[in-house]
Records
---
Amino acid sequence: MIEFHPIVNSTPTPGLVLRIGDTEFRYLRLTHVFESCVYAIWVSEPEQARYARRPSKILLKLLDDLSSTNASKWGRLALPPVLAVPPLAESERQQELDVAWNLIKPLIESFETETNLDRKRFSYLIRARAEALEVKYLTLFRMIIRYYYFGRSRLALLSLPPGLSANKGGYSENKMEISDEKNKIKRKGRQSVLAQELGVNKFIVFEDDISDMIASLKTCLRRGPTYQSLAHEEYLATQFRIRHPDIHKAYLNGEIPEPVTVRQFKYYIKKHADLDDNLSKNLRSLARQQGYLGSITASGPGEIYEIDATIGRFYLVSDEEFPKLLGKPTIYLIIDRWSRFVVSIYLSLRSPSYEEVRHALLIAFTSRELRFKGIGIDVNDKRWPVGHLPAVLCPDRGSDFMSSAMEQSVVQDLLIELTPLPPFCPDGKAIVERFIREIKRRMAGSGIKGVYADRPMDPLSKRASRKAESAAVNTLSDAYRILVEIVIDHNNRPHTTLKRNKEFVKNNLSPVPQDAYLWGLQNITGLRKAPLTDEDYKKLLLSTGKASISNGVLKYKQRPYLPNNET
């Protein structure tokens, strides 16, 4: 219970309290008084000191207006009984008090200067002191707030032990439950637009939750470059799910809104996270144009495929008795954005063009066994399931993808939406780019002859490229065999992004690209689909050209074709 003792004819001084209201009272305690302004903190019950905010600036004119109303009165607040009795000399509580005071004394002296009470300066000084003493920032911050909350009393640094008061039972051990409904902890800030549909978000972030957020971000940063939005997804799928399983389950079922929003996550990270240089360099922002547009956001498998082509870092030779050097092939890759499932891989020694892209699209929904059996590769439709053509194809701005033939064939003939990335945004299709990097890394580490690791940009890498050229012994079939094994391994390896997917967590599914692709095709409804059937696409993707018939033999592109039977 708050004990307010009014006083009359008072001058604003640190420690005094201004009571505001006629029936329901609010209490504003002054912490600092300067020539043109004061700093004050809102106070209430003693146990609410844990959740108090830092002192805020109030101009003297505004303070005079508040105090001059009939509903306002100056006075003092009595200290809680446990803090009103000083500890015995040389007792443990006295030693605890001395240690606590020595921790914050330099900061209290610094905050007597008005400029140091600025929000950024206030946090900076506390953080610098915490790093110097190797203590937590939050510990020092709460000690300082308690000091001002209870009227700049050193006794405020003593902890409030749970116990009985005159009018209430013991303090609740559960931080989420406070017996007095009037002073119940409430979530601050605006509610989501989904509050009308899913209800009010009542989840409150505590110290343990903030620690989980920071730990989740650091885990993501140790893996490599990441964004705070991705770390937020990782936090909800891991630490939050473990600490609050019931709330997380309700969130997955769509019964409540998102308990911790991205904005909240960024706020607490900015306020409390202390990252070293090695981690900070992996933290990415969205300052540059990223190419993440609503038109290329996938809701399920088969909606959006990313396509890209790269020059392989290996040399091929012909399959002859005396092999000839053929050069470096171009690798075409098509990968599903939602599931990370690789649906097609195609090697070509020709120059980049739509004709090569057409072959890559055809492989996407062609039987693997029929496609690769002729070149001696042991793969079937079970190890690498057949895909489907997408509703949207996302290429970069390469010449083969931006050609008029590509636009004519894909958009007008195949009726597939084409969404090329804006300039200078290669990370708009980071999924296929990362898989290309993985292919080159695994090829370089395989020890296969004719493979080199780095792009030939300097004398060492150029020398390695020349050595690989002279040592090449692999044919096109050998290269396909290696790449198909890499694709199958990728499709059946757990993926970090899929572990954060709500649908996978909800249905207890394995976060594997192949399983995700097949499950999504069967269970996710309302997805954009390619408008034509696979049979129609096979016909549309066939090559056109001239052939000749003579003596019952059909010749097409210098190859003879004989009839299957005499009729």
Note: The chain is about 40% helix and 15% strand.
---
Amino acid sequence: MKKIIMLVGLCLVLSISSFIYNGVFASSNDKKTQNADEINKSGEILSQNAKKYKEDLKNEKVIALIGEEKILYKEFALKKIMLESKAEIKKTKKPTNKDVFEELKEDKISIVMAKQMDVYPTEAEVKEYISNMRKAINESDNPEALTYFTQNYGISEDEYWNEWSEPLYKQSLINIKLGNALASKVPQEKGDSREEYNKKVKENYVKIKDTFKEQIKVDILDNDLGIT
């Protein structure tokens, strides 16, 4: 697990980590400059969007199939909450339903790849990873954002970690393990700088994932969402 945590940075370079690393609860250099009001505002934005889609988070309807992997409406709603919140916080363009679906599709393709490469995380690995992330966020520069979110949304922090966090962190762990597995297949030549090696890893990742995309059938089952 320590090796996995150490390689989070590599997965960030590959741009395959989840919102949790780049959004409200991230601990990064730019976040250190945030004051309490900015942190609270981030938590408020996330909680407001979560309330807006609260009922959708219970909807088990299957809206699409990526190969044999189902996309549930509640997964679509959760991804929408995260992406809309991130856009609002960073003052960027609000994502469309198609944007949300495309991100979910990428997640599901990563799941297919992880299963085929035998690196899909076990339940025990997911629990350990969530525990490590909980500790990391509690010890980060801005743990208040999570507290502000849970208080405004009306849940306890335990409820967040036991109910909300699992799909987010599980996908992050899938991405990390997949990134590590693919990186291990790329030899680091003598004289390669870190940047050169990371570029090779990224190119290999994109190439392999593109191959998977060509082979995986995508079935849209809900034509009312505007995701085609």
Note: The radius of gyration is 18 Å.
---
Amino acid sequence: MANNFGAFLALIMTIVMVPALLWLLIQSLRASHYNKPVREGMNRAYQGIQNLKLNGSTTGNTGRMHLANAQEHFDMARTAIQSSRYKEALTHVQLAELNIQEASRYYKITGNHPIPPSGRLITEGSGLVWLG
């Protein structure tokens, strides 16, 4: 009877562990696929937003609206990264970059303040980590 219980326990462990390991493998592969585009896009978006905030000036609300939208998409991308939703993060990064481009049409760069490097997206293991 002990042999039957051991075989049953091994079967249950196999049924539970194999799908879990496959899921982890798939998540790791997806993360490594999106790592570089998300990391580079987040860093570009951060630089663009900070540049317009520190060095830009505008008289109209249209540029401010686009900059606020870019910041919102940037924050949503950061939230998606923390939840390991890299495809969604990439979409939000692309939308943030489009809003930055649109906002830069209404902003005039007047200063030359350096961008603080406090916010950076780095690769750690198979995932991404936002420092800042």
Note: The two ends are 58 Å apart (CA to CA).
